[in-house]
Write a structure and sequence with these properties.
Layout: H1 2-11, H2 18-27, H3 35-68, H4 97-100, H5 111-114, E1 124-128, E2 138-140, H6 150-161, H7 165-180, H8 191-204, H9 213-219, H10 232-237, H11 247-250, H12 255-276, H13 292-295, H14 300-331, H15 334-347, H16 361-367, H17 373-381, H18 385-388
Antiparallel strand pairs: 1-2
Helix pairs in contact: 6-12, 7-12, 7-14, 8-14, 9-14, 12-16, 12-17, 14-15, 14-17
């Protein structure tokens, strides 16, 4: 898919706007014999088919849990009616009977998490947040303050990389490896992680993209305990092995492997911001003194907890954005639907004046060219769905 994106970049004319080119091609010829009406009817029909497909896939995800897994007794299949509350739940078939009791903690928690690090937001800078949609929020002074949207996730990762990426990313890889390597398949409750998961859950409940299929699939896991037993049916409906196995163990990943993969993710974030931000006006959500050494040198597990907790928010929203861009590019419907992309970008935290008011389809496509499947799957795998959902 990355190669396809590079090929499209080569085809784009210098300084050209693909969205305007597509609009010109769609509108060429004027309105002859009701062509505009026919195009409108086809557009409505395509929207209806797409909505039906999204609804079908979501219902199949829920059905799989209903048939094969233990669902929460007070969970509802209509997730839209449950935007905030997240009841305690019973575990999957690999959980102990005590875990299946509503509200009960698992009988054993991994030694690395028995004294789970308390995530303290720490002091904050006096300057106001650059996000004009939330002017009362201050810029974070420490990386121990979890990100609240995708823009802040990217700022957090870039600040974590810092001026010595070799040392900092290596330390991050070691922290994530130690946190995930010994987590069994089933359900393990880590109090500090639950706080960060709540941030991801609230973000994914935003109306701007809560009904996008990747987001709906992730959101369901905050309400319904995932089925972890592997069988032919889970293989048919599940695309990710990290849903039902500890991939750190099964893939033989090392701390260095994780550090390299996360380095690719950070590089993708930097490229994304390069094509979305307004140079000279962009401000990070984290102050310059928010570094690995200042925030996590004494407690690296706290960093791993935040990274794992924000994974669903980062993956679900960017995967939805990626799918929408691919859909518009292949169908040539950017003239009609690209405003949805701009709305999604604002919902992700990319607002004026820091970011471009009206980025073109080419801008967004190039921004996502290094946040493609490889990088997003890395974030998904490191979210620990086999152990924490």
């Amino acid at each position: 898919m990355a190669s396809q994106r590079d090929e499209r970049e080569m085809k784009a004319s210098p300084g050209g706007d693909l969205s305007s080119d597509l609009a010109t091609r769609v509108s060429a010829g004027g309105d002859k014999d009701g062509e505009d009406d026919r195009r409108t009817d086809k557009l409505k029909q395509m929207k209806e088919w797409k909505n039906r497909f999204d609804e079908f896939t979501t219902q199949m995800d829920v059905l799989l849990n209903d048939v094969l897994g233990y669902t929460r007794s007070d969970a509802t299949s209509e997730l839209n009616s449950r935007p905030v509350n997240s009841p305690s739940g019973n575990g999957g078939s690999r959980c102990s009977p005590q875990q299946r009791t509503l509200g009960a903690d698992p009988p054993s928690i991994q030694s690395s998490s028995q004294t789970a690090p308390k995530i303290d937001g720490g002091p904050k800078c006096a300057c106001k947040s650059p996000n004009i949609t939330n002017v009362d929020k201050v810029v974070y002074h420490a990386l121990t303050e979890p990100p609240r949207n995708v823009k802040e996730c990217m700022d957090w990762l870039i600040a974590l990389k810092g001026k010595d990426p070799g040392k900092n990313l290596k330390a991050l890889g070691e922290a994530v490896y130690k946190f995930l390597a010994d987590k069994p398949v089933g359900y393990t409750r880590v109090p500090a992680l639950e706080k960060v998961k709540l941030i991801s859950k609230e973000f994914l409940n935003k109306p701007d993209f809560r009904n996008r299929h990747p987001v709906k699939r992730i959101r369901s896991r905050f309400y319904i305990r995932m089925y972890k037993e592997f069988c032919w049916l889970t293989k048919f409906f599940t695309f990710y092995k990290s849903d039902y196995e500890n991939i750190i163990q099964t893939k033989g990943l090392t701390a260095i492997d994780i550090a390299d993969k996360l380095g690719d993710v950070v590089t993708g974030c930097e490229r994304f911001l390069k094509h979305i931000k307004n140079p000279g006006q962009y401000k990070s959500a984290y102050c310059p003194e928010a570094t690995w050494d200042a925030s996590f040198a004494k407690n690296p597990e706290a960093c791993a907890v935040i990274l794992v907790g924000i994974g669903p928010m980062f993956y679900g929203s960017l995967e939805s954005l990626l799918i929408e861009c691919e859909f518009l590019y292949r169908t040539g419907l950017s003239r009609y639907l690209f405003e949805f992309i701009r709305m999604m970008l604002k919902a992700l935290g990319f607002v004026e004046p820091e970011c471009r008011a009206s980025p073109s389809l080419v801008d967004v496509d190039r921004a996502l060219s290094r946040l493609d499947d490889h990088e997003l799957y890395t974030v998904y795998d490191l979210s620990g769905f086999w152990a924490f959902y």
